[in-house]
Specification:
The complex is a heterodimer. Chain A has helices at about 1-15, 15-30, 55-70, 85-210, 235-290, 295-315, 320-360, 360-395, 400-470, 475-500, 500-515, 520, 525-535, 535-555, 560-570; strands at about 75-80, 80-85, 215-220. By secondary structure, chain A is mainly α. Classes of the chains: A mainly alpha, B mainly beta. Chain A: This is SSX family member 2 interacting protein.
Chain lengths: ~575, ~450
């Protein structure tokens, strides 16, 4: 119960002032209806407070009580005793009821609050115990950790000790190793010396030993590989060897020196070229750059160039010290100039950037032009498109047959013309062949004539021969010589045609099938023939040539075209 | 490309004479000399024991056959088959035998490297050279055959002796600044001698012919150093391959490093072409066997075919992590070779055993990478053309040239596995050595380009 009272205090503290006052009122005045043990004197009177006997007393009592509570009096003291004012009574009753209700409500509120605070209290108690547990736990942990730390520290201490021991041991071992190493080295040296001694002794023994000596059997000695005889060893040989050695060394150095010189020369060349390039790069810019400085710079560069040329000429002859100095100096100079030039260019570039804005106007014009051209292209494209459409329409239109026939006619015409051309060329060729044949027949006729003449000649010659046997041969001699000359003159012309009649025929047949163009290449026999007669090759090209210019290329295609034509005819 | 029939051979002993006319092979204790062109046997010599080492004299007139266990060397003449020469080193033993450059002297190194015995075929003279050092390359003759450099060890110090080969006159004798000298090599022009230290220290010393120290080069310290060294044929470059998987190129004027070629596991150099060998296994039993497939199957039923494919960059190269606990770890550049025209350098890094790298010496950059399916056994440049032949211990021969790459199946029967390749000095044929066999491969000039193009496609 002390707790509960405490609670109440708490809640009353937290409640509003109004409540507090009401509570006071309640505790002071309207405790009556409550069955509380504090007010025991009210308890028995509740049931029978007012009886018919003590109405007036009751009224007076109530009146008093009411007045003490600050309500208006219930009755007014009149002449015939206290008169109950009904309105006031009712008002008072109403007020009392109101008060009572209000009191009940506050009681309820207080109760709720108490429950709330009770639960709150429980919760706090719980958390309190929990925190106490936690505290306990952490305390235990803390002690454990402390213990471990202590142990670890102990361990560290022992490890430190160990380390120290180990270090000492290492040092000891190192010293041992060092001493061992020295000992080992010493021992090894000793052993090696011993070994050497043993070797020596063994050598001696082996030399001294007689039973199994080194043997050298050879059937006969062979000559030296260079064929020379070996030389005696004298003081001179040593000198000779030294000389040879130095000679080889010198040769080596010589060759190396040469290589280096070559390399050096190459590098120098490169350097000089670079320099020249630098000069040439730098000088024209200067001309274009500044008009006012023009003359000065020109002079300057020319003088520089002279200088460069001089130096390049000299550098090869100068000792390397000088040359190098000069070269490096000039290169450095050029380089500096180049650098400054580049820097200037840089600064110019920024200026140019500004100027570029000015130059933007032509760019716009350019763009305009571009646009215009683009537009034009578009227009033309449209044109083409419409044309195509029109063509398509025409093709699709009902007058299809006519156009087709027209087109066919066109093609036919073309074909005809081509065929005509072909025909013409064929004709020409035929003519050529005819002429050739005529020539051949003429030649054959001439040949027969010649043969006849020859036969006659022979007859006369035989006759002369026959007559020469006779004593009057001397008179006939001039005649005979004449006939002989005639014979010899004809001999050549006779022999050739006779020797190649078969070939001639063959070639003729060949030319008949192949084109005139191909014949000289494929059949050299006809070519020979032409050359011997000197008739056709000069004539025929002259006749063909003017027209053939256009037909030469086509000649090769003729057989194919012919076939095509034939096929068309067959169809 | 044509292949000869297969001949027998033992101990990988097969050499072409320096003049390119004869082919000498050893079969057990017999020495067979054939004509290179006809492959007909010209001479047959019988030695006293199984031949371990065989060498032609420089004039192609004599052949040396060494039998190290017996301490014997036998020399045969090609001109006079009856002529003989036998050298018995006796109880002193024999570990190495070689011709002098003139082809008239034989240099025998005795056991324990006690001495080098110089036997003359011209006179009865025998010379001894004491204190030769047992190392990677203790003796080297200059290219012109005039001088011999010999590494020596006396009193725990390294020395180099330069002899005149003509009469074995000691020309120069000087101490080198090395901890433990590993080798000496003359430059091809015979004027500079490169001397390098053992793998424990990265150090190259360059001496002039007259014994002056020209320069010293050391790339790094405290790590395994030089593994291989190669001069370019023009003597212009000295390539140094080391255990860090890099090749450093020195120039011949300042003897400073010109460039450094790394062998990265990931190749993303856009100027390099990566050729990857891809094996095509014949598919048997699949439903859609095309005619072409049938044809290829008919010829190589049991062999896998392979071809090169160009890989798009970047390419990851297979790297084998070396076992560091073992001696001689498989790491670092072990072999390098310049092409005859000085333009290319081929290298192989041991922890990327399947890959051969080709570098362009004009551009000083990577040019091509050949990734094989198995470890590369041997590679050699054509002595005339920029053409590289390599083998990987299978039945294939691989060729690279600037035009492209090609892999050729060796058509020999019975599993011919190419262990090493050697060019004929004319560059027209190749000698392929198997385990017990050998075979000649003839190049057809003018045809190979087409083949290469085909394969590249």
């Amino acid at each position: 119960m002390p707790e509960s009272s405490l609670e109440i205090k708490d809640t009353s503290c937290s409640s509003s002032r109004y409540r507090m006052s009401s509570l006071r009122q309640y505790s002071q005045s309207s405790v009556l209806p409550l069955p509380m043990t504090r007010n025991p004197y009210n308890m028995p009177t509740i049931s029978a407070f007012c009886t018919e006997d003590n109405v007036s007393e009751c009224i007076s009592y109530i009146n008093r009580e009411v007045s003490s509570l600050g309500f208006p009096l219930l009755c007014t003291e009149s002449n015939n005793g206290p008169e109950l004012n009904l309105v006031d009574v009712l008002n008072n009753v109403y007020n009392l009821l109101q008060l009572h209700r209000r009191c009940l409500q506050t009681v309820e509120d207080i109760e709720v609050e108490q429950v709330k605070s009770n639960s709150n209290m429980d919760y706090l108690q719980l958390s309190n115990t929990r925190l106490k547990d936690q505290l306990e736990l952490s305390k235990r942990e803390n002690t454990g950790l402390l213990e471990r730390e202590r142990q670890l520290q102990l361990k560290v201490k022992s490890l430190h000790n160990c380390l120290k021991n180990e270090k000492e041991e290492v040092q000891k071992l190192q010293s041992i190793i060092a001493s061992r190493a020295t000992q080992y080295n010493h021992d090894m040296k000793r052993k090696e010396r011993e070994f050497g001694k043993l070797k020596e002794r063994l050598n001696q023994l082996l030399i001294d030993k007689k039973d199994k000596k080194q043997t050298f059997e050879v059937l006969n000695y062979v000559g030296r590989s260079d064929g020379k005889r070996s030389l005696w060893k004298t003081g001179k040989t040593e000198a000779r060897h030294e000389g040879e050695m130095y000679k080889t060394l010198l040769n080596d150095y010589d060759s190396r020196h040469k290589d280096l010189l070559m390399e050096n020369a190459e590098l120098k060349k490169v350097l000089q070229q670079m320099k020249r390039d630098m000069v040439t790069i730098l000088s024209p810019r200067k001309h274009s750059q500044s008009g006012e400085k023009h003359d000065d710079s020109l002079e300057q560069t020319s003088s520089e160039e002279d200088e460069v040329c001089d130096s390049s000429r000299e550098s090869l002859e100068l000792s390397c010290e000088h040359a190098r100095e000069q070269l490096t100096n000039s290169i450095r100079q050029q380089w500096r100039r180049l650098k400054s030039h580049v820097e200037r260019l840089d600064s110019q570039a920024s200026l140019v950037g500004e100027r570029a804005n000015m130059n933007a106007i032509p760019k716009e014009v350019h763009e305009q032009e571009m646009d215009r051209l683009k537009l034009e292209i578009q227009q033309y494209k449209d044109f083409i498109h419409t044309q195509q459409q029109l063509l398509q329409q025409q093709l699709n239109s009902p007058c299809d047959d006519e156009t087709a026939s027209l087109l066919n006619d066109c093609y036919m015409q073309e074909e005809k013309e081509r065929l005509k051309e072909d025909w013409k060329s064929f004709e020409e060729k035929r003519k050529n062949f005819e002429a050739e044949r005529r020539n051949f027949t003429e030649a054959a006729i001439r040949l027969s004539h010649e043969r006849k003449a020859f036969e006659e000649d022979r007859a006369t010659w035989l006759k002369h021969q026959f007559l020469n046997l006779t004593p009057f041969g001397d008179q006939m001699k001039p005649q005979m010589s004449k006939s002989q000359s005639a014979l010899s003159g004809w001999a050549e012309s006779k022999v050739r045609p006779v020797s190649t009649p078969a070939k001639l025929n063959k070639s003729l047949s060949h030319t008949a099938f192949s084109t005139s163009r191909a014949s000289p290449a494929k059949t050299p026999s006809t070519a020979d023939l032409y050359r011997t007669h000197r008739l056709i090759p000069e004539k025929s090209p002259s006749t063909i040539h003017p027209k053939q210019d256009s037909s030469i290329l086509r000649n090769g295609d003729i057989p194919a075209q012919l076939r095509h034509v034939n096929g068309g005819a067959n169809c | 490309m044509n292949f000869s029939e297969v001949f027998k051979q033992s101990n990988q002993l097969c050499r072409v004479s320096p003049d390119g006319k004869y082919l000498a092979t050893c079969v057990q204790y017999r020495l067979v000399v054939r004509d290179v062109n006809t492959l007909q046997i010209l001479h047959l010599y019988t030695c006293l024991d199984q031949i371990v080492h065989m060498e032609w004299s420089s004039d192609s007139l004599f052949i040396l056959c060494a039998m190290y266990k017996r301490g014997l060397v036998q020399v045969w003449s090609l001109e006079q088959p009856d002529w003989y020469c036998k050298i018995d080193e006796g109880s002193i033993g024999l570990v190495s035998s070689r011709w002098s450059p003139d082809g008239r002297h034989i240099l025998n190194t005795t056991e324990f490297h006690l001495r080098v015995t110089v036997w003359s075929l011209c006179t009865k003279a025998v010379s001894y050279i004491k204190y030769p050092k047992a190392c990677q390359k203790g003796i080297d003759f200059s290219r012109d055959g005039c001088y011999m450099a010999l590494a020596e060890r006396r009193d725990c110090r390294d020395y180099v002796s330069v002899f005149v080969c003509d009469d074995w006159h000691l020309l120069r004798h000087f101490e080198t600044e090395t901890q433990d000298l590993a080798g000496v090599e003359w430059s091809p022009n015979g004027c500079v001698l490169a001397v390098w230290d053992s793998c424990l220290e990265y150090k190259v010393l360059l001496y002039s012919l007259d014994g002056r120290l020209l320069s010293t080069f050391s790339a790094y310290e405290w790590s395994l150093g030089i593994k291989s060294l190669a001069w370019s044929p023009s003597s212009q470059f000295l390539a140094i391959g080391s255990y860090d998987g890099k090749v450093r190129i020195l120039n011949h004027i300042t003897w400073k490093k010109v460039t450094e070629f790394d062998h990265p596991a990931t190749i993303n150099n856009t100027k390099a072409v990566v050729y990857k060998e891809v094996e095509r296994k014949p598919v048997v039993g699949s439903a859609d066997l095309s005619i072409q497939h049938h044809i290829t199957m008919g010829s190589t039923l049991f062999n896998t075919q392979s071809k090169y494919e160009i890989c798009p960059l970047p390419v990851q190269v297979p790297v084998v992590k070396p076992d560091l606990d073992r001696a001689n770890p498989k790491v670092g550049v072990s072999s390098m070779a310049f092409s005859s025209d000085n333009r290319y350098l081929a290298t192989k890094n041991d922890n990327m055993a399947c890959v051969v790298w080709v570098w362009d010496m004009q551009r000083l950059g990577l040019l091509a990478v050949l990734e094989q399916t198995s470890a590369v056994r041997c590679f050699q440049w054509d002595p005339r053309r920029p053409r590289l032949a390599l083998c990987t211990g299978n039945a294939k021969l691989y060729l690279w040239s600037p035009a492209g790459c090609v892999s050729v199946q060796v058509p020999a029967e019975g599993g011919f596995q190419v262990q090493s390749v050697t060019w004929h000095c004319s560059g027209d044929s190749l000698i392929l050595l198997g385990k017990e066999q050998l075979c000649l491969c003839y190049m057809e000039v003018g045809e190979e380009e087409e083949e290469e193009d085909d394969d590249v496609k």
